[in-house]
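Fig. S4 source data, part A: sequence.
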Amino acid sequence: MTVSYQLVIDCSAAEPLAQFWAEALHYVIAPPPAGFDSWDDFYRSIGVPEDELGVGADSIVDPNGEGPRIWFQVVPERKSIKNRLHIDVNASGGRESSLDVRRERVEAEAARLVALGATRVRTNAPEGLDHYAVAMTDPEGNEFDIN
């Protein structure tokens, strides 16, 4: 039996990162649970202390219900080492398209995400391989790839 899961990303500011990744992945900000006007109202109902509220939108969901929920958890520590897990944004359309077409699609997506606040780190296009990707970081420095 499969289990459901959510991806949790530690951060210093939840709402800006949630907004970035919602745009990047074509997700939407998760609405609060039924019966609550806001996430803060829900968190109060389960006993979260007032000093931990007010982070704004902190989770995103796939509007088609196919991808995992992503929660941006505010933590006191700043990112200090390379991620052990990262997101691959699949923008190329896959191997059914030529390498030139895939390269154009990856570059267009990289430009779109830079405009949203990402930073381009490097291009990954090894000579002789049918592969093209761009390594990037989100606004808080979390690594991800576009391929």
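Fig. S4 source data, part B ends here. The chain has two domains: 6-74, 87-146.
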